Amino acid sequence: MVDQLAVLGWPIGHSLSPAIHRAAYSTLGLPWRYSAVRCGADSLAAFVASRGPEWRGFSVTMPLKEEAHRIARDLDPVARASGVVNTLRRRDDGRGWDGFNTDVAGLATAIGAAGLDPADTIVLGTGATAVSAVLAAQRLGAGRIRVAGRNSAAAAALAARGDEATAMSAHGLADEALRDGSSTLIISTLPGPAGRALDVPAALTAVPLFDVAYDPWPSPLAERWRAAGGVAHPGTAMLIEQAIVQVRIFSSGDPDTPLADEGAVRAAMRGATASADMGG
């Protein structure tokens, strides 16, 4: 019996997860199959409950991350702290699914590998991925995080997640307080099309942008950043790093146990996303 895995979401046709997971499994010699399945939040619980024992686990993308958190039998510490699950692994006893959040580790690793400075971070957006962005910046030692979004209540709730080492505040996307030129990093978790209409002052485009979007790439926001002479980093870097942690989980159940040859796995995954990074 061949183990089955899939990425679940709606929409899902754009996802690069099948390409990068298949590249990883091939490199590791794992005879697993990985597919993409369109699934809405209202059908997630029934879908995963109906899967047979051959189903090892799932990557979970929007808009399912909060619902995946709700249905998981047990949660890893990051999923528990964030209220977000992007990975479901069948429990060893076969009774349900354990939930994990690999977005935080993936984003933190990608930011660090790019040599970006998270000391004074602005997070654009207030959804599930924005929660992980805040936790990633905190993990990297950010001294200040400003959360900016259209939903003021959601921004305030996210800003309330501050710890003793991080000054947190909530803002509107057009707030003058974001234009003081002091930020060192901007993480956008906004849907790609939202970048077209966003009011972006010149002072912000001088700050490096990490945009979790990758389809299309460059995203509308990244295009505006680059047109102004700024630097924009694609979300494929985060996608790869969080997927490496997912493969660890699917393999051993432990997000901290490295794979046999992660360097080769990372290289294979990058090769699988090369055309997306170039806008292909």
Automatic annotation (TrEMBL):
A GO MF term: NADP binding
The name this protein goes by in its record: Shikimate dehydrogenase
Domain Shikimate dehydrogenase substrate binding N-terminal: 7-88
GO-annotated cellular components: cytosol
Pathway involvement of the protein, from the record: Metabolic intermediate biosynthesis; chorismate biosynthesis; chorismate from D-erythrose 4-phosphate and phosphoenolpyruvate: step 4/7
InterPro entries xref list: Aminoacid_DH-like_N_sf, NAD(P)-bd_dom_sf, Shikimate_DH-bd_N, Shikimate_DH_fam
Annotated TM spans: none
GO biological process: aromatic amino acid family biosynthetic process; chorismate biosynthetic process; shikimate metabolic process
Keywords of the record: Amino-acid biosynthesis, Aromatic amino acid biosynthesis
Record flagged with keyword Glycoprotein: no
